[in-house]
Structure formats: structure tokens, C-alpha cells
Specification:
By secondary structure, the chain is α/β, with parallel strands linked by helices. Helix content is about 45%, strand content about 20%. It has a single domain, classed as Rossmann fold.
């Protein structure tokens, strides 16, 4: 797996695409909107730039990419009117890895522009949009270029599968699993945290150089209640793959050596890394939970299918780096069955972290 090449959501607009299966992520962004809007408003009131430069990092390719941007434009328009000032122009920079489906994203821009003009008039301040295909683990923009950065459901992905997942005698440490699970050895958690620490620290230091003094950033990502309990949907997906090994549908060695480049930190881990990196003042660090399925149907099969399609839109491109595309349909049919059984036994939720910081250097 080459993460920079292979990590992207399902492309296009067909029934398995991320564009058609990202209402969960939309719900998360909506729930975090009060923090996003408050931070953007404070940055504008503090800096009053003539052109408000913002970046959507890990934008992906569906309609959600422009959701937070639209809310920020509305908030700043309202803030400028409240002090009888001309609304600033907007520079919007959509960033993701090179494998992202930027073409589908750009197809949304005319409707984005039309919606702004319909709400605010054809003479509303200009909004300039660019796409930047580059990893955000490292520099993306010039020094002191941005006033505001937003990223939702992006920074929990890692720049690579962690090192150290193989023992000295060459055996995979995480057999039967694809992420940290109850049966994973302590060494696995240490390796995953070490990679997240390295990546997140680099993310913070890079954004510190790019955000002006007094600028802001809001990050939303999946977290964990406890550092010793990473019970997640990827554990259930891993056990489904293991069932397919037992049925002879996939090779055991392939499963044993496949690991998701993902880490869900705790609130305390995030706080410590922000404080240790030192470039940002911590404004808010909050958490909220969201059910695996935001589908309002009470039908267990419909809810399980919703969860399956949501995870497939995220994970399929990574899975097909190791497993044959021919097994993917069967995998997610089995996965939906396991989701339905599990949701009948307990309420499963994503633990989400919202981080708001201000550049202080």
C-alpha cells in the first residue's frame, strides 16, 4: 500500500461512491458547525482581512467539501454587515491527496457559485476557488498565507501504515485484524500512536507556518474514549475478513499483513500533542458521539446497509490494494449482516473530537 496514492474515497457519483454515501460525514460537520462558525467569526473580527483566505484540508470529492465553506462565508458576511463593513473577498483552497477525485469536486463549483448568488445577489463579493493535490503532512501553502483552516474527518488518517507491525521473526503482530483490536498486542498500539504523534505534530507545525498570527483552525476527527479501548467499526470489518479467511475466500497471509492507516486518539492525547508542539493556543477541545447509522429508518436491514455503504465508500480503495476486487461485494454483504447483529446487541457510536486553535507565533 502506498498511502499517498491509494488513500482516497470512492470516486465518481455511482451507488458506491463517496459522493452518494457520505451523509454521516455531513452530519458530523453539521454537529461541529457551532465551533467552526465561532472560530471563523473570531478570526474575521480580529484580523478584518480584505481577502479571507481559507483552506479545506482533506476535502474529498463529495458535496460535503463545500458545506463548511458555505457556512463560513455566511458567518463572515453577517459579521461584516454587523459593523457596516464591506464583506471581504474569499480565497478557498481545496486540498487533498493527488488520488482524490478533483474532477467530480470541480463539477460542483457552478452550483456552489449559483447558490451563493441566489442567496446574496449576483454582485456579492468574489469567491476564488482552487484545488491543491498534495499531502497535508508537510507544507502546502506559503508562509503567513491563510486566515483559517478547516478539516473534517481527515487527520485521523495516517501518512503511512505504522512501522513495527512485524515481529523479529517476521510474523505479523496483528493477525486476524486490520486495526487495533481487543486481541492486538500492546506493541501494536504503541506503533500506531507513534505514527499518529509524528504525523499530527508535522501537521500542526506545517499549518503554523502557513496561518497568519491570530488565524484559526478547526479540526474534526474520530477519537477514542480510552487509549486502551479502540473498539471501532474497523475491528468489525477485520473480523468479517477473518470469517472469509475461514471460508477460504481470501488468503490468511493477506489479512495478517493488511493494516488500515488510521488512528483514533483520545482527547488527552490530542491536548498533549497540541501543547507539546506549542504553535497554537487551545480554544476548545470537545467531544460528541454519533451513532454508526444516521439513517432515520428503524428497519435494522436498512440501517445495516447504510453503515456498510458508508464504510465501503471509505475503505474499498485501500482494501483493493491487497484483496481481489472480486471479493468486495461479498465482503460487504457479510459485513452488513454482522453490523445488523451487533446493533441489535448494543448501541455503537463514533466518538468525535472537535479541536479549535489559534496561531500564536
Amino acid at each position: 500500500m502506498e498511502v499517498e496514492r491509494d488513500l482516497h474515497m470512492m470516486k465518481g457519483i455511482d451507488q458506491n461512491s463517496y459522493a452518494k454515501n457520505s451523509s454521516l460525514q455531513r452530519t458530523i460537520t453539521t454537529q461541529a458547525s457551532p465551533v467552526i462558525e465561532e472560530s471563523a467569526r473570531e478570526v474575521y473580527n480580529r484580523l478584518s482581512p480584505k481577502c479571507f483566505m481559507m483552506a479545506e484540508m482533506g476535502c474529498s470529492s463529495g458535496p460535503n467539501a463545500l458545506l463548511a465553506i458555505s457556512r463560513i462565508i455566511d458567518v463572515i458576511d453577517e459579521a461584516s454587515q454587523s459593523i457596516n463593513q464591506q464583506c471581504p473577498q474569499f480565497g478557498v483552497h481545496l486540498n487533498d491527496l493527488p488520488g482524490n477525485d478533483f474532477n467530480s469536486l470541480f463539477d460542483l463549483l457552478p452550483s456552489f457559485k449559483n447558490a451563493i448568488e441566489a442567496a446574496k445577489g449576483s454582485n456579492f463579493t468574489p469567491c476564488f476557488v482552487t484545488g491543491i493535490p498534495k499531502s497535508f503532512f508537510g507544507r502546502v501553502f506559503p508562509d503567513d498565507f491563510l486566515h483559517f483552516v478547516h478539516s473534517s474527518y481527515g487527520v485521523h488518517f495516517l501518512s503511512q501504515v505504522p512501522n513495527g507491525l512485524v515481529s523479529e521473526n517476521g510474523e505479523a503482530l496483528n493477525q486476524r485484524n486490520i486495526y487495533i483490536a481487543k486481541t492486538s498486542p500492546p506493541e501494536l498500539h504503541k506503533a500506531y500512536y507513534a505514527q499518529f504523534k509524528k504525523d499530527f505534530t508535522l501537521f500542526l507545525s506545517s499549518r503554523s507556518r502557513e496561518i497568519v498570527f491570530g488565524g484559526g483552525m478547526v479540526l474534526v476527527f474520530i477519537g477514542s474514549f480510552d487509549s486502551d479501548d479502540h473498539d471501532s467499526i474497523y475491528e468489525l470489518l477485520g473480523s468479517t475478513l477473518h470469517d472469509m479467511v475461514l471460508e477460504g475466500l481470501i488468503e490468511k497471509e493477506k489479512l495478517d499483513n493488511f493494516n488500515i492507516p488510521f488512528y483514533s486518539p483520545t482527547v488527552d492525547e490530542v491536548r498533549k500533542l497540541v501543547e507539546d508542539e506549542g504553535s497554537f493556543a487551545l480554544n476548545k477541545l470537545e467531544a460528541f458521539t454519533t451513532d454508526w447509522s444516521v439513517d432515520t429508518s428503524q428497519n435494522p436491514e436498512i440501517r445495516a446497509k447504510f453503515v456498510g455503504k458508508t464504510i465501503r465508500a471509505v475503505a474499498e480503495p485501500l482494501l483493493t490494494t491487497t484483496f481481489s476486487p472480486a471479493v468486495i461485494d461479498n465482503l460487504f454483504l457479510l459485513f452488513e449482516t454482522r453490523v445488523k447483529v451487533r446493533k441489535a446487541e448494543k448501541r455503537d457510536e463514533y466518538f468525535n473530537i472537535v479541536l479549535s486553535v489559534t496561531e500564536k507565533e
